[in-house]
Amino acid sequence: MSTATRRLPVVGDVDAGRLLATAAVGLTMATYLSVLRYIVTVAGEPSQFALALAGSLLVATVLSRLVRPRTAAAVTVALLAAGSYYYFTTLPAAIDPYEALGPIVADAISMLSGLSILRIVNAGVWALAITPGPTMFAWYLALRRHYLSGAAVAGATLGLLVLTGDAGPATTLVGAVGVAGAAGFGDTTRTTESVAVDDARRDVLVGLGAVVATTSAVDLVPGQLNVGIDGFDADFGSGGTTEANLLGSAEQIEVQGSISLSPAVRFTVESDVGGYWRVGSFDRFTGDGWVRTGETQPYDGETLDAPPGDSRRVQQTVRLEGRMGNMPALWRPYVVEQSDTGADVLSDGSVSPVRSFTDGESYTVESRIPSAGPQRLRRAGTDYPDDILNRYTALPGNLPDRVAERTARVTANAENPYDTARVLEQWLANSYDYSLDVSKPSGNVADAFLFEMDAGYCTYFATTMAVMLRTQGIPARFTVGYTPGERVGERRWVARGLDAHAWAEVFFPEHGWFRFDPTPGGPRRAAESDRISEARALNESNVDTDETGPEEWSATPTESGETSTSNATADAGAIQTEETPGVSRRLTEAGEPAGGDGDTSGGIDLPSLPPREQLALGAVVALGAAAGARQTGLTDRVYRAVWLRYQPRSDPVTDTRRAYDRVEYALSRQSRPRRSGETVRAYAAAVGDERVRRVARLYERATYADGVGETEADEAVALADEIVGRSRS
Amino acid sequence: MSDAEEAAVEGVSDASATARSVVENVGEVIVGNEQAVEHLVIALLGRGHVLLEDVPGVGKTMLARAVATSFECAFNRVQFTPDLLPADITGVNVFNQKTGEFEFREGPVFANVVLGDEINRAPPKTQAALLEAMEEETVTVDGETRILPDPFFVVATQNSVERDRTYELPAAELDRFAVKLSLGYPDEQEEQEVLGRVVGDHPIETLEPVATTADLVAARRATASVTVGEPVQSYVTRLARYTRENAQLGVSPRGSISLLRAAQGRAVLDGRDYVIPDDVQSEAESVLAHRVRVGRDGSKRELIRDALTAVPVE
What we know:
The structure holds 2 protein chains of 2 kinds. By secondary structure, chain A is of the alpha+beta class. In chain A, 49% of the residues lie in helices and 13% in strands. Chain B has 2 domains: 3-225, Rossmann fold (3-Layer(aba) Sandwich); 227-314, Orthogonal Bundle (Helicase, Ruva Protein, domain 3). Chain B has 13 helices and 9 strands. The longest helix of chain B has 20 residues, at 10-29. Classes of the chains: A alpha+beta, B alpha/beta.
């Protein structure tokens, strides 16, 4: 009722508004700093980050007492320039700065359109280089009480990270809250900034907030969006299948919780040998997912790198059944002889279509399959090239030491990288159950799988194996693709969605990358064939081609199969292990339980909870909308609208007074607000009708006399409802 | 719906009826100026005294007489002159030769309604005699204190012309008047009506009482019982504080009390047994304006109006 302005309490001689505004700027800074810290941690240089951060804050504090904003801005520019220079010095020496300029600009553009910073090879250095400038300036401005400007600097930095897709929804939201807080609380502590300038800045901030919120909302979909646009059929877009998870996004993979298997046929391969149809690999482990760093190049029609050692030439022709944004091929693709879409080459040497394949399109790839056997791999040694070592043994700075300790213990008897890998492969397959029905752990996935979980699916096995190998200094990477699938003829294989798979690849000097698949094979195949049978029973579409069916291809297996005989696929690319499992067992720690009895149902009928992304997306959209609504005063209006129409009842006096408040609010919207010295009665007489005057009388009784009874309160509320309803209609 | 309906206490409705009939009755004599009449009756209900400041000949005396007549009260008029002595107001002890004792001969102050005409013509000592009576409702002569009749109501007048040879009332004494009013000249139509009425008998001669002294006493009691809620008290306080912050001399606590009493009186006149801010607002100017001192350029009434605009009402 009273129009007296409320002021924030004053704490000591420091205005609480200032404290809050400073805190809000700090909050915004914390958001982008947390993202940068995460990047630095993933790249493995956390201590330097703390140093850069502390230094920036210290400099800002000192400068805030000494220099004017203009000078501080110059210092910021200098810091950014120094950071850029530092970053360029760490780039491979071969890059001429002038030649690099084009790609750098191209990089900048692709980063702003969603290229994660983690995909930059020197992501850690990049993050370190960018940290001091904005941090120094934002904190300087906050200390100088230019809260809006400070929040704008921090918000812009966060905005950059949102555009690159590195700032998640929660971070973005917190940042938006910080910016809003600075805008709100900075208001009460307006110092030298004039009103007009303030308003202009607030507009900018609101705009920025909208951009940030929108981008983060769109950005959150990437895997799924990608799938919808150029990846897979709509039924893949559910985001819940192994395939969509592993192969939906070209550049990164986030480890998921429960997922299901899609039985639909994806492609048919005609090839001399079957094998793991490989799509691509990832080199940077983020703790909860994988990112592929480096550039994708257009395929120029020349031959690609062949594996360094001996290899076998295999030609595959793949015909797609439906849309697909990948180009599965045996490792290692050498020549793309024909492709209906053209081809790109990923940074790891995999091939990829320029656009998505559509139903019926095909491509032919000639691969060179490395053929080195165990003996030669054992002798391969550890003389890794530097770039391989840097790229494929990096681990997040926050990986607990116990992972390395456990790995060292498990592989204590292994004498060379090959044995280490083989032991880990067996140990993982034996120690953990196969299950599609797991909840995603928080924290580092490899650590959680090792120590907290007892079952998982391929992503968990492959991630953990690659990470464990890296702890031992052995270059390893996370690879995705399709298992051979169903063999339907001498030279024909049919791969379904549920054949999507992840495994590890290990590098051997002089020989290249070799596949290790730590996922228990039996249980996985059982889950998959169960799913196919079920799909057939339910008459799901696209489960079979003309060639496939319940009957297995019954040609005499040409090779002595390994463990599995149900799908007697010739498995090119697998290392021809001549040892019996006993050898491995000798190497494995005694007494480790052999897990995986193969009776898992595979969690086929999963509860249809919306996936985590969708929940997060919904949350951020809702919260973003809330933040925007707050900024535009919408929440206030909505609150008012509800408050106006719905009156909860309490005691008669309160009810009556509130009824009048509602009427007065409605009237103030309709004609004019009550003036400061104007009494209720005078106001009602001036702008209201008989009913308003009646409510005003009841209000007077409630306020100035001894109170009112239930009857009067009922009357007042009823009248208020009536008046409010009329005035709004 | 009328306000009378809202009156819950019987005393208040009776008092309201009494007050209204008096206002109406006085209106028979005083043409126009209904507001001044209301203010005066309200002051009467709130046990206050009234100072009328006006040019001569606009009906000040007539107003006081009409009020006295309406209540069937004893009415006395004292013309203040420079040679008036305090004893001329309060009365004196006179030696009675028959009984051989001193007898108190009551002065004109011993009446229910006393009109002190041109009070600023008498020296301060004489003014003080009347003012003491107003404040204490007693008179002390030769060490003996005598109680004045109840109700006791003073209407003092000041001439606003001929300011020379006058003794201006000091602020402290002005403060004792609950209300300061001025009647002002009637407009053309009203003046014509006045002339019409005085043809033949002057209406004051034929004015009939509409209430008794006992009614007035009861009405005053009822007025004092009118509810003043906390929001109204706070509003009055804030008004007073506003004047203190914005004038050379603001409203005293006595002024706040007078305003509250007057607001009660206004509530009774409207037939309400509780005070609303509107009551305070309608009385504020006449109750507060003469208590503040403003700078050379300011107007006292304007300051009060500013206060009413600026101070928010709950």
